[in-house]
Amino acid sequence: MKDSPVNSLLKELIYFDKKSTTSVYIQISQQIINAIQRRYLKEGTALPGTRILSQLLNIHRNTAAAVYDELAAQGWVEVIPNKGTFILFPKSKTAKIKALSNQIKDAYSYPKATGFPFNNSFHLSPTEETSKAKYILNDGHPDLRLHNVHEFSKWYSASMKRKSLISKWKSNTKKEFSNFEKQLCNFLNSTRGFHIKPNNLLSTRSTEMSLYVISRLLIKRKDVVLVGNLSNYNANMIFQEVGADIKTIPFDENGLDINYIEKHFTKGKIRCVYVCSNRDYPTTNTLSAERRLHLLQLAKKYQFAIIEDDFDYDFQLDGSAMLPMASSDGNGMVIYLGKLGQSLFPSFQTGFVVAPENVISEAKNYLQILDKQGDLIQEQLLSELIYEGEIYRLLKKNIVIYKRRRDYTFDCFKRYFNESIQIKKPSGGLAIWIEFQPSISLVQLAEHVSMLDVFLPKTLLYQDKNTCAIRFGFGHLNEEEIEIIVSRLKQAYNTIK
Fold first, then answer.
1. 364, 388, 412 — which closes off a domain?
2. Does residue 350 fall inside a structural domain?
3. Percent of the chain scored above 90 by pLDDT?
4. pLDDT confidence bin for 164, thresholds 50/70/90
5. PROSITE patterns, from UniProt (predicted)?
C-alpha cells in the first residue's frame, strides 16, 4: 500500500517547514488542495489512512488526522466510516444569471459607472499621493520601528484568550460602562486634569471619526465654523462635508486671535470654533493662557461651542503640557477630542471625545450606526496596558528619543539653511514648522527634491501671499535619515532660489 501511485505522488509533492508560523497540518492540507485543483488527484481517488499518511510524511498521526479534518471541513474530501477518505471536487453552487441583452459578455464584467444618478461630494477631492522615493515626509507620525513586536504580539494574544472577551462577544446585553471606558476615564483624569466620569466619554476609531460624529450632531448647513488661517485639512473637509460655512481667523505666535472673533462676529452668528490649543496645526504654536480664558468667556457670551482637538497632547517634549481648556470648562462649552496609544501600533490606537453627558449620549447613538461592533480586542488590550502602566512607560521611553530627534532636526535646518529660514523649536509634538525667507516656490521645491529620492507631499506645503512654509514631521525618522533629507532639501533649494 505504501508504494501505491497516490502515496508516491503525495510523498513527492508535499513539503512542509516545521519552523514556519503556519501549522504543519495547514501546510499539508493546502498542498493536497493544490494537487486536487491541478487534477493530480482525481475525484473519487482514495487517500491513504492516517497511519500510512503519518509514516509517509514522517508526521504524528494526530497531525495526519487534522489534515483530513481540514480537507473535509472545506469540502475537498469525504470521509466514509469503515471505507476511507475520498477526493471530492467542490462544485459551484451559484448559478449564473443569464444576460438579458445581446451583449452576453457585458453581464459577466463589473460596470465602471452606475446606471443611476447620485450626489457627488464635489469638495472631497482625494489627497493621497504615491511615491517610490526612499525617504517620505509626513506631518508628524510616530516611528513604528521603535515598537517591540514581540511585546505587542504577546499582549494581543493574551487579550484574545481572555474568557471575559469571549463572553462579551456572545452577550446580547451591554453593561452600563465597560472596563475600558472606566480605565480610559481614569487615565484622562490623571494626565489631563479632568474630573470626568465614563458618561462624559466616547471612544472612536480615530480623531477624524470623533470629529465627524460631533460635526454631524452639532452643525447644520450654512452654520458658521471658525478655524485658523492655516488649519487642519482633514478637519476642514469634514466641516465642508456637513455643509458648514467655514470662516478663517488670523493667528500669531500666541495662537488664534480671539479679539478678531469678538470684533467681527456677534452673538448667534457662530456655531463653533475649531482649535488645536496645545499645539496649533500646522504651526505648532500654543494658544496662550490669556486667550484660552478669553475664548471660554466669549463662547459663553456668544453661545457657540469650542471643539478642542488635542491630537498630540501626549508628546510633550519640554516641561509640562498646558492642561486642556476642557479641564477648566464649567459651563459645558468645550468638546474635547484626543488620541490614545500613539506610542503603540496604529491598529491599537483609538480616538476619544470628552463632553457633557447629553452630547455623549447622542454621539453614542450616532456611533451605533457607524460602528456598532467596535473593537473588543483593542479595548481589552488598552484596558490592561493602562491598568498596568505600560502605556505611560512606553510613552516616556519614546519621548526621550523624539526629543533627541526634534533637537537634531532643528540643528540640521539651522546648519544647512542658516538665515534662509525662520524656525522655532516646538515644546512638543512630532513636527517642526519651517518658514522660508525670502519666499520660494514650494511646488518646485517638492519637484526638485523628488529627483533626489525624497517625497515631499503637497499636503505639507503652505503657500499664499503671506506664507511660505512646510510642516516637517521628524518622528518617523532617525538622525541619519534627518541629515540626509535636510541636506537634499537644501540641494533642491539652491537649485530654485
1. 388
2. yes
3. 57
4. low
5. HTH_GNTR
